[in-house]
Amino acid sequence: IFAHAKVYRDKLRAYATLIKALGAQHKLQDATDMGFGVLSQLGVQCQSSLPDTSAVLRDLMALKSSLEDLSGDELLNSREMVNSDMVAAMSFLQPLLLYNFLSNGEVLLTVVFHMLYLTLKYGICEE
């Protein structure tokens, strides 16, 4: 599949299956590394290494500020995410959320921050 794909998007389903297979085999770090590689190809820059504490605090404060500016109704009535790359990114972030919850709490924060950021910037999606 990977060798015959004409564009990167053609590989996404195969990568999703491979990442879930790695997770099922408890190769959570391999699944996370591959997932972050796919995310970077989709334009979402994440790193699987442990985040710097100051970077985590900076991201937390930025998200807190963004969320404080929204009312509950605004959040519930957010637009639907239509950017296909970001919808795909969210579908890769979802299993990474679980894998890092089970294995690496520090990287979990990075995944959560990216999911919240994408939701605030691009809208809500099913993932």
Automatic annotation (TrEMBL):
<protein>
    <recommendedName>
        <fullName>Nuclear pore protein</fullName>
    </recommendedName>
</protein>
<dbReference type="InterPro" id="IPR053159">
    <property type="entry name" value="Hybrid_Histidine_Kinase"/>
</dbReference>
